[in-house]
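Exercise: predict the fold of this chain.
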Amino acid sequence: MLITDTGVPERFIDTDEWGGEVMLRLDDGWCAALDRDSMMCTIYEKRPLICREFEMGAPECIEERKGIATAYR
């Protein structure tokens, strides 16, 4: 959920079922701001707070990615 204004471009923002702003996810569950070739964030400097709190490769990050992969199988 986007809870602070970091300048995320509108094309990467979606609205959840409760009306909150969230990062847009593609049909397969991956973040729309992710470059699939490099596996790097295309809006890194403007990424939302939740993304800043997850250190890449940290256990929490890995668990979140597993959850996304499982949910969209």
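Check your answer against the key: The longest helix spans residues 59-71.
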